[in-house]
Amino acid sequence: MEVQLQSDPWEWEKPMATYLLRYHSDQLRSIASSPDPNLHYPLFIDFAELMEEHPHLARLIFSQPTPYLQAFDNAALLSHRIVVRDLEQEKNVVEKNFIHVRINISGSPLECSETFPTIGRVRVQHRGILLTVKGTVIRSGAIKMHEGERKYMCNQCKKSFTVYPEVEARNSISLPSICPMQKLKPCGGTKFQYVENTVVCHDYQEIKIQENDVIVTGLLTAKWSPELKDVRCDLDPVLIANSVRRTNQLKSEMDISDDLVTKFKQFWDHFKDAPLKGGRNAILRGICPQVFGLFTVKLAVALTLIGGVQHVDASGTRVRGESHLLLVGDPGTGKSQFLKFAAKLSNRSVITTGLGSTSAGLTWMLEAGALVLADGGLCCIDEFDSMREHDRATIHEAMEQQTISVAKAGLVTTLSTRTTVFGATNPKGQYDPDQPLSVNTTLSGPLLSRFDIVLVLLDTKNPEWDAVVSSHILSEAEPDRANNDEDLAKVWPLSTLKRYLHYVKETFKPVLTREAERVISSYYQLQRKSATHNAARTTVRMLESLIRLAQAHARLMFRNEVTRLDAITAILCVESSMTTSAIVDCIGNALHSNFTENPDQEYAKQERLILEKLGSIDDFSDMNRMGD
């Protein structure tokens, strides 16, 4: 198609309409088939496609978006009427009054840093062009109605023209000083009369964003701040949005090549005879490698990030698949290091402190806090015990029902918080092993019961451990001479580990075998019988936690089936969460837990011990024979 060099936006309307009919006829037909003629309909076009077909027009839209986007809207109506005429023989075809072109800049030259700056780099030089910014919606105002346009008629030449509100003047209408019609032969009229019933209103909503989870394309301008007595009136930067895209889905998608998936499969095929030592533990060593040992914590972090399978029970209630983890420990035990590393492993994460982790603040607009901003991802909360009382009450609902209900200032709504919570806190004073967790942490029993795993890291004196840790820290300070090839049997780089956790979480939906169900059920019943010291933890939530952790371990092991191994591992994780163990006497301090030389043999011993304590080893042997 030849490029025309018209400079007047309205002269482009026919070429624009031809372009829309050629490339977007499906959208035009869909709009024509919609029943309501008074709704405002979007028509989405790709800037990259427009750039290839009409490079001159694309440059004009970029440099002068206000007049040329208005011309594009007129062209959309023109092409729509042509489609309606072509479809007049069909039923349910209605001519529409309002169609607006929305620009998608993905894959176009506008994704460069000059036209797609971070929020902090927006400057006056960006004013007036088609600008794109990326941010997180932290406030959303109520949907209102505002005047989008109205017509006036010149008393001199009797021709009508459209007037648009000025954002700079808080959407007020300003009439031109002289008649804008007949530019070649102006009439010189200065008096205008409003044309009845020509006001067009739009739905209008203000959102406030900070970096980094929506992509907004529009026109950068400014508006005067509200007039207040004895307060200087400033110009606030405003982006009049042409299109808004949510990036939650984009962030949840990760580029995982077929070659990498093949590499994962080959890794597990190689270690099928030693799945724990060569397979699982090699992966776990890649978690926070700068911290020596802490096997139990690294396993807990991996299982928490992977999570279980969400399901709906018989009553229709959704049971969460996300797991929650709390680290309680003395200063200097590596809690914050794990928080930061876990945030790097998650596609979508928010790191905050207890005082900063508001669930949902409210003024005249709804403002999202940390839990809402982390929806679909991970919320890391350091200094969990310093959380305000109001937010502690709110987090109960957020962690279990995965919603936050807000009823304030005339606004009633529910916010989604499908979030994995990873908290860290110091004990209250000197940790007393003889007291329950709720006393040592100042966190209530109901709140503690919502955590699938609670690990206590006590900095007790242990000369042998101190010597090993100091040697590790000193060796970390030496220059890195390691080979950089990605041999997964030796090292799991952060990028590969992140992709692996994402892949197993999205791919595998493990189902419990009868054997795994029996192990978990027997352990839960035993805990209920012996629960005195950990009454707040041994609720039905423990059973749900065991299932989630077992499913997460099956995913970690690259399987779609929850076996006895996964159930036993889940039990060991929950046992580590107990201040007094129901069946395992050798858990010890999680801070001093290390990777064993022969984890497969160690597991066999622990499995035998647990099944004997559960009193059902004969039953399991019988069930195995029945299965055979």
UniProtKB/TrEMBL annotation:
GO terms for cellular component: MCM complex; nucleus. It catalyses: ATP + H2O = ADP + phosphate + H(+). InterPro entries: AAA+_ATPase, MCM, MCM9_N, MCM_dom, MCM_lid, MCM_OB, NA-bd_OB-fold, P-loop_NTPase. This is Probable DNA helicase MCM9. Probable DNA helicase that may play a role in DNA repair during meiosis. PANTHER family: DNA HELICASE MCM9, DNA REPLICATION LICENSING FACTOR MCM FAMILY MEMBER. The keyword Transmembrane does not apply. Gene3D superfamilies: 2.20.28.10, Nucleic acid-binding proteins (2.40.50.140), P-loop containing nucleotide triphosphate hydrolases (3.40.50.300). Its EC number is 3.6.4.12. Residues 279-473 form the MCM C-terminal AAA(+) ATPase domain.
